[in-house]
Design brief:
By secondary structure, this protein is α/β, with parallel strands linked by helices. The chain contains twelve helices and eleven strands.
Length: 338
C-alpha cells in the first residue's frame, strides 16, 4: 500500500489497523505497549505503523497513556538566581523524553503559590518541582494527586522528596583550599545569620579550621547581610583590627566583591597578601571581579537534574522520600592563586 507524500499527514490509526489486520482498539493497545497484546500482534502493528509513517497526535498519545507529559516548576526565587540553573538542569533531564516544563513564579507568596499550584494541576501536569529562594526548610504542600519534589529549599516533612545543596561542604571546601595554599589566618565574613545557608557555610568553614588546629580571625565569624556593602564594612574592620589576616572566606560572591574592593583600597595585593573566596559562583560577579573570584559552586544544574530524575521515577511509581544532598565544588580563580 503506497502512500503519497501529501497523504502522510492523513494516515490514521484505522489505516494502521487495516494494514496489520487487527481492530483499531488492538492497534492502539499495541502502539501504547499495553500488556494484553500478544508479541506477534504488537510486532505486526508496529511494522504497519512504520510502513505508513504513522505519527499519533500528541494529545491522543497522552490520553492513551493517562499522562500530559508536562511537569510544573514553581519558583520563589524572584531574580531567577537559583531557579534558572535548576530549571536548566530539569530540562536537561527531561530533554531525553517527550516532556515539557511549565515555569511559574510564586514571588515568595504562599497565596500566589497556591494559585499556581491549582492552575498547574488544572493543566494535568504529571508532577511538580518547587524551588525555594533560600535553603531553610519550608512547609509541605501535603499529599497531592501528583508527585512533588522540593528543590533547594527542602520540605519540613521527611516523607516528602527533597533535593538540596551541601552548604556545610561548601564552607569546608573554601577553607581546605586556603589551607592547602599555606594560609593560616583566615577570617570568615558570613551573610545574614537568619538564613540557614549562612550558618551552615560558617559551620563547615569553622570545622575545617578546627581540624587544622585553627580558629577564625577574631575568634568567630562575622554575620551581616548578603550585600557588597556588608563585605566592604566587614573587610575594613578585619584588616584594621587584624592586619595579619591572609585570607577571607565570604558567604556570597557579592560579599566577596566588597572585600576585594577594600583590600585593594587598603593597598593589600590579592592574592599575594590576602586571598578571598566567595560562594555561589555567580558568573556575573565571580568572572567580572578584579582579580577573578575563586568561588564555591552549588551545582544547581545537577540539583535540577536530580530533582527531575526523582520526579520522573515517582511518576513511574518509584517514589523515594527523603533528602538528596548535592555536593558543592570549588572553582579556583585568581583571587586565591595568581
Amino acid at each position: 500500500m503506497a502512500v503519497e507524500p501529501d497523504q502522510e499527514r492523513r494516515v490514521t490509526l484505522a489505516d494502521v489497523a487495516r494494514l496489520a489486520g487487527v481492530s483499531p482498539a488492538t492497534a492502539s493497545k499495541a502502539l501504547n505497549d499495553r500488556d494484553e497484546v500478544r508479541a506477534e500482534t504488537r510486532t505486526r502493528v508496529l511494522s504497519a505503523a512504520r510502513t505508513l509513517n504513522f505519527r499519533p497526535h500528541a494529545s491522543a498519545r497522552h490520553l492513551a497513556s493517562g499522562r500530559s507529559h508536562t511537569i510544573g516548576l514553581i519558583t520563589h526565587d524572584l531574580e531567577g538566581r537559583f531557579s534558572i540553573p535548576t530549571l536548566m538542569g530539569a530540562e536537561d533531564a527531561a530533554g531525553t523524553g517527550d516532556v515539557s516544563v511549565l515555569l511559574c513564579d510564586a514571588r515568595g507568596d504562599a497565596i500566589r503559590e497556591q494559585h499556581h499550584l491549582q492552575a498547574l494541576l488544572g493543566r494535568r501536569v504529571d508532577g511538580l518541582i518547587v524551588v525555594g529562594a533560600r535553603t531553610d526548610p519550608r512547609p509541605s504542600l501535603g499529599r497531592l494527586a501528583v508527585p512533588v519534589v522540593y528543590a533547594y529549599a527542602p520540605s519540613e516533612d521527611p516523607d516528602d522528596m527533597s533535593v538540596v545543596t551541601d552548604d556545610v561542604m561548601g564552607g569546608r571546601l573554601a577553607v581546605e583550599h586556603l589551607l592547602a595554599l599555606g594560609r593560616r589566618r583566615v577570617a570568615l565574613v558570613a551573610g545574614d545569620v537568619g538564613y540557614l545557608a549562612a550558618r551552615q557555610r560558617t559551620e563547615g568553614a569553622t570545622q575545617a579550621l578546627a581540624e587544622a588546629g585553627l580558629e577564625p580571625v577574631g575568634g568567630a565569624a562575622l554575620y551581616g547581610a548578603w550585600t557588597e556593602e556588608w563585605g566592604r564594612t566587614a573587610a575594613a574592620s578585619i584588616l584594621t583590627h587584624h592586619p595579619e589576616t591572609d585570607a577571607i572566606v565570604c558567604g556570597s560572591d557579592l560579599v566577596a566583591r566588597g572585600a576585594l574592593e577594600i583590600a585593594r583600597e587598603r593597598g593589600r595585593q590579592v592574592p599575594q597578601d590576602v586571598a578571598v573566596v566567595g560562594h555561589d559562583n555567580w558568573d556575573i560577579i565571580s568572572a567580572g571581579a578584579r582579580p577573578r573570584l575563586t568561588s564555591i559552586d552549588m551545582n544547581l544544574e545537577e540539583l535540577g537534574r536530580r530533582a527531575a530524575a526523582l520526579l520522573f521515577a515517582a511518576i513511574d511509581g518509584d517514589r523515594r522520600p527523603g533528602v538528596d544532598v548535592v555536593p558543592s565544588r570549588l572553582v579556583p580563580r585568581g583571587s586565591t592563586a595568581g
